[in-house]
């Protein structure tokens, strides 16, 4: 029997998301989520997509990631999709930080585990949880290939002129300080899907990808390769986000320490969890912000204007980096669903060939689609991201040939 199934795992600090896909036709067989791990009110949600069944939910304590993955395995087994199936070719893991070393999907062994662990200081919120999920999955299926797909990998093609910060080289190298970038699986998938939407090969197309969710990032992709991205050493840099500040004068940190008496941990919390849209207006849901704007709320309007101002700056900067832009692609929760954000982001950029058609922009849902006017010099597109599919494809490309 051919092994064509890939289980995709995304292990967070208190949750595990999963999808089971069949790579013969890229169909989804099941998906689910275990959240609030370690609490008495843990939730297990499972949807058997292939069987057309409804979503099952149950609550109760899930003590740790090992219990979470066992709960996942039980749900899959109930649908005849158990982890012991000979059709399962591999498990693909989302790993947030791969540093400079991991530039492509990698079969996990002790050496790889050690390197992911070594990178914890530059990804303290993500790599530990990713490691826990990997080790638990390896214990459940020690005979099965486990593959790490890194958020940072797509961005390793950046030239040194884009990746390096202008600080002392010896200090930067000693502490691995450089621009790594994140959301790489999304940027890879969307840039390739945008080329397909234009009827061209990725190598022929220059794309600015705008991944706009609660976390947000931009990338400049030339001929299928990333040449710049907005996130840096961590996911804090770049665009205004739901709770993160994005770009800021680093001296603000010293000012808050010296004048505000704040500790490093307090400032870390401020910039990552109490800034961005929520810091500006108290909300990080773009739908709620737009509702408040419609009611005349000035704080919400200012937050929106700051968000758009930063977004336009990156569009303009990456236009200059690329020299020629064939498309600007909006993706992720805000990018795919917030028509006012898309309209405002390109308003006034007609001189660069950018515009949206009001009727096309107002359409909701569906697959990849153009929202620019007919015959526009630069295509503006909405391209739904699919990070799980990207991870599954990369995983199967690596191990499928042996099955």
Automatic annotation (TrEMBL):
It is found in: Cytoplasm. This is Acetate kinase. Mg(2+). Can also accept Mn(2+). Its cofactor is Mg(2+); Mn(2+). ATP binds at residues 17, 211-215, 285-287, 333-337. Pathway: Metabolic intermediate biosynthesis; acetyl-CoA biosynthesis; acetyl-CoA from acetate: step 1/2. The active site is at residue 151. The record marks 183, 244 as: Transition state stabilizer. Its EC number is 2.7.2.1. It comes from the Bacteria. NCBIfam families: ackA. The keyword Cell membrane does not apply. The lineage of its organism: Bacteria, Bacillati, Actinomycetota, Actinomycetes, Kitasatosporales. Coiled coil: none annotated. It catalyses: acetate + ATP = acetyl phosphate + ADP. Homodimer. One of its GO terms (molecular function) is acetate kinase activity. Belongs to the acetokinase family. Keywords: ATP-binding, Cytoplasm, Kinase, Magnesium, Metal-binding, Nucleotide-binding, Transferase. Catalyzes the formation of acetyl phosphate from acetate and ATP. Can also catalyze the reverse reaction. It comes from Streptomyces atrovirens. Substrate binds at residue 94. It is an enzyme of class 2 (transferase). Mg(2+) binds at residues 10, 387.
